[in-house]
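We modelled the chain as a single entity of 308 amino acids. Its sequence is:
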Amino acid sequence: MKLVESVPNFSEGRREDVVKEIIAEAEKYQGVWVLDWSMDPDHNRSVVTMIGKPEPLLKALFDMVKKASELIDMRKHKGEHPRMGATDVVPLVPIMGTTMKECVGYSKELGRRIGEELKIPVYLYERSATKPERENLANIRKGEFEGFFEKIKDPEWQPDFGPSEVHPTAGVTAVGAREFLIAFNVNLGTDNIDVANKIARAVRHISGGFRYVKAIGVELKDRGIVQVSMNLTNYKKSPMFRVFEVIKREAERYGVPVVGSEIVGLVPLLALVESAAFYLQLEDFDVSKIIENNVLDIFAKELEKSES
């Protein structure tokens, strides 16, 4: 069986009815499973985690992008998280029986359809990028929705698919194949956004931090605190526990406590196992010693037999 994961991000985190309408587009398809979804009113963003067989998954994603373009008006959107479109980004991740090369092909197929049928400019990113400067999503998103009307006029920023002008309400969208990413946020016991920004600079790669960490400071106004909001693009080489420890130490410099952390969407079991092994100082521990993992292996083998 071939399975691909996708974690589309939509620029709506306050109207639950709108997010549910978008998710309903995926639930129409057999062979597609919505595993998790979450909304953040401060970020004004929702994240949906889903897996599926390639053909129905691509159809479901297109329908979700279409519905988002109908329900979200970027001219009215305000939030803490950088964004450039109603559907901000659609990543494709190989999960079972698929390769990264295949996912690159799927991303181009989906991107071309979004551009041609919905008239939304599409930029390919990460492994699908057509230019080195487009590999990093942050480079594409720079300027955000408001700045893209001028940015897209630059010959260097012509989209990979779709028209060479920003969709007036849906903005632009990034589509690409990538490795598994962990959206990991650490909350600080202060309302001083300067502290969050300084810590974000200490851990993110672009300013000298961890190679596989992207980070920004974010205000959580409803809670009266700030957050270091991160994407861990390779949790094996920049582990969660190591990043968390540096944030704690940096926060201590400013007399600020860490008051909690959160994972947005789903997380690989190995990332949590590594964190548990670090904090409990476990010796010679790995996922093979987790009972649920062994049970899942049995079920997977039985499923393969039944399908062969």
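As a brief sanity check on the tokenised model: The mean pLDDT is 94. The first helix runs from residue 16 to 27.
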